[in-house]
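Forwarding the complex inputs:
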Amino acid sequence: MTTSTASRQTPEFRIVKAIARKELNAAVNSRWFWLWAAAFAGLAALLTSVALPDSSVDGYVGFGRTAASLVSLVQIIVPMMGLTLGGLSIAGPRETGALRFLMSHPITRTEAFVGTYLGLAAALAVTTFGGFGLAGLVAIAQGVPATTASFVWISVLSWLLAIAMLGVGMLVSTVAKTSAAALGGAVFLWLILVFLGDLGLMGTAVATRMPVGVLFSVALFNPTEAFRLAALSSLSGSLDVLGPAGRFAVDQLGDNLLLFLALGLGLWAIVPTMAAWLRFTGKSDI
Amino acid sequence: MINIEGLTKYYGQQAVVSEFEAQIATGESVALWGPNGAGKTTVVRCILGLVDYEGTITVGGVNAKNGKVVRTGIGYVPQELAFYSEMEVVELLAYSAELRKLDTSRVEEVLETLGLQDHANKRIRALSGGLKQRVGIASALLPDPSILLLDEPTSNLDAEARDSVLRLLEDLRKEGRTLLVTSHHMEEVGMLVDRVIAMEDGKKVIECAPTEMADALGLRAWLHIVTDNKEATSLALSALSGAGIEARENSNGVLVEVSAQSKGTAISTLYEAGVHIADLEVWR
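Prediction (whole assembly, two chains):
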């Protein structure tokens, strides 16, 4: 039996739970986590409270306007939270010796990986749903007629984006030799996905007169774009505000648009995480 | 109990351990001794199944590549608990016990055995180096393992903490546990183990009793002989010089460079010259 085969045995739930709980506690007790949580919840509440009844954002009014503002906020902050938490998840403990200490116990690498992932995913759920919860309370206090289903759906999509970024961050973490390199890699990816991806895509589309179908497909390769499309689609059932690409998507996919976008985001949550797991449970040294 | 055959480990293109062999019997206490980068820690990591390697390692007949099974019976003490700094001692031990599927009552037992009850609710970051090492040993002892792997257990400790940890390890040795200690401290090796495997550049260079190691490796030592006064120091220097032994004056006596097995010659020379030795230390 090779090391990698042995480490991919079916994980024991009890051990995974212990590691996940410890990771959640560690994350919730860290300054970084509170910094992001406070920034997200604070800005979400602020955006909701300053929303003016007669104004519009991206063509949305009422609650839709507030939610559209929140989508833009999520696009910037949530990927950073997921990427940094994931980026430090393996490389950090490896550097301090904590990973070696953990793995000196009778546990498999899969148990260590899954426990870490679930603990951090839970920490991201606390931040994401906490932030949206606070924004929701502010909306209710201001008498904004909230569409609960849309609000919950956007919250879930935000968490899906967060764990997709967590998986990407963990992949970076398994490859990086130091925690500084992992953090640097995570921030670099954030820049590419959030800023360069968006601007690059727009620039390329204009310069190359990219067909709308291709533009829509390429946008899906960026999880933050996939999130935006899914979130905006859930608000009104259409993507008209995004122009020809949005109309193309609605024409092509009809009622299945939201499901299709959520699946795209789901793939982003699964594929990098699986790649990180394979890397971690392979022949890499601890 | 631990059988290592043809162990080779590469980091990139470089072999950090090469064709390493060792057999450690049940209840035996063995040191892997050598300078930094000799490959000692890598051998320990291989035994724990933390790194991929070539060759065969079995622990109690079980292939070490089946890490989860092998680690059940092993307690590992890291060089330093430089992590989990926000956890309390009792939380860390409870976490370790949970990972080993042990009853939490075992945490209380170990805290008591290691005299850590008063520190149970302190955070790891608030502990001194010696106490941190004690917590590391406590965690390793939770499953009451027959094998303890200790990676440079005293390298980051001050003299007092080192002494305390060494006493603790000596007690564990007397309990009949199998100990594998990595170290580059000669004194530590001499106190703790039955056998030394000296390593250099990833290879075994010698395997012997601790008392034979300094001589076998051609290591030299310094005798710091404390005399009663300046007059005695002069007499000592003169006697040693007459016997062809190199010596020089030190703050309160003489410093004599000797080979590992010739310390007695210097002492008897001073004795015959009528020099009263007030105190004696061996420096390496």
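Chain A has twelve helices and no strands.
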